[in-house]
Amino acid sequence: MSATTTAALSKVRRMIPPMLESFHKGQLGRVAVLGGSQDYTGAPYFSAMASARLGCDMSHVICTPDAGAVIKTYSPNLMVHPLMRQMPPEISELDASEWAASAEKLARPIIDMLARLHVLVIGPGLGRDPLMHDIVAHVIRAAKEKKFPIVLDADALQLVQKDVNLIKGYTEAVLTPNVVEFDRLWKAVGINESGGESETKRVEALARALGGVTIIQKGKNDYISNGRVTSTVDLEGGKKRSGGQGDTLTGSVATFLAWRRAYIDQLWRDPETPRLGEEEMIGLAAFGGSAITRECSRIAFLKRGRSLQASDLTDEIHNAFMSLFGEVDGDDGSSKL
Question: What NCBIfam families does the annotation carry (predicted)?
């Protein structure tokens, strides 16, 4: 582990709440994953379970009724809300227009849920149904009005590609594109500069073009930037790239963002000064989520090798947390690395 990574993880550790008897249910994180459709039920489950396993108090999944019936069988620990709707198959053009017009009404119960949450993950298992995308667009706009933190991945990035103004300038947003998704976003914003050969320069340029959102570009190393501050997560990961590993990342980042809320609210005392800044902690949450995911992948690969699956990362989240941060406890808050 490089000295730079050690220093970054030391700051991330300050965001992690100690386990105090004075806390009550929900204070240490209420995260929801908005996704899950008829064909995709695993992705929202892996994201929500990553959040739960990392230490979020309450993990929700907001999905379609078909997906909800399946996800409920995966774990009783998740709260599943079948509030999303897909466009019915084989409908006329007129009916399709009527369904599209109903998107704002269908989004209202989801928007109302934001008051009960700390962070929203958008995209895992979302699919490309036009009605689902219209509902999500309404939810994103409402989240922006409330300055509500959001993490976008997978098919939610398709929405950004179609309309970059949906999140442009929204600094409470974290995007987690892989290399292919990154290139699509790069083209969508129409950046004129090449960014040179440096991956850090490219992620900085895209974050600036999107008005200061935080981007985690996934790859051999993970590059994180809001256009002004850039970091590299160079921790070793596993060599198997199974589907679903990115969902562990979104759930982990969301939990750190929820802990950011608890830190801002001063639910415990941070003995170090100066206190961490609100903007700084978004980057730290991204760094922490990336580090946890890579460590999960490394540990799981050592055990499973080429048979590794996304569920193996879920099983290793606590071990990864202990490896990177150890016990975080005590009345005085987080102890030092």
Answer: yjeF_cterm (TIGR00196)
Please tell me whether 236 is known to bind a ligand: no
Residue 201, burial from CB neighbour count under 10 angstroms (0-12, 13-18, 19+): middle
| pTM for this entry | 0.95
Query: Per the annotation, does 164 bind a ligand?
Result: no
- Mean pLDDT over 243-268 rounds to 96
Residue 182 labeled ligand binder:
yes
What CATH number is associated with residue 160? 3.40.1190.20
242 is in an annotated binding site: yes
Residue 333 inside a domain? The answer is: no
Say whether 243 counts as a known binding-site residue: yes
Say if residue 239 carries a ligand binding annotation. yes
Please indicate, yes or no, if residue 55 is contained in any of the structural domains.
yes
Range of the domain at 282: 3-325
11 is in an annotated binding site: no
Residue 20: both structure tokens together: 């105090």
Q: For residue 334, is it within any domain?
A: no
pLDDT tens-digit series, residues 181-193: 999 999 999 987 6
Please name the residue that has the structure tokens 């922490």: 288
Q: Is the peptide bond before 274 cis (omega within 30 degrees of 0)?
A: yes
Which amino acid is present at 218?
K
196 is in an annotated binding site: no
Q: Is 127 annotated as a binding residue?
A: no
pLDDT per residue as tens digits for the range 111-137 = 999 999 999 999 999 999 999 999 999
Place of tokens 């987080």: 334
179 annotated as belonging to a binding site for a ligand: yes
Span 9-14, mean pLDDT?
A: 97
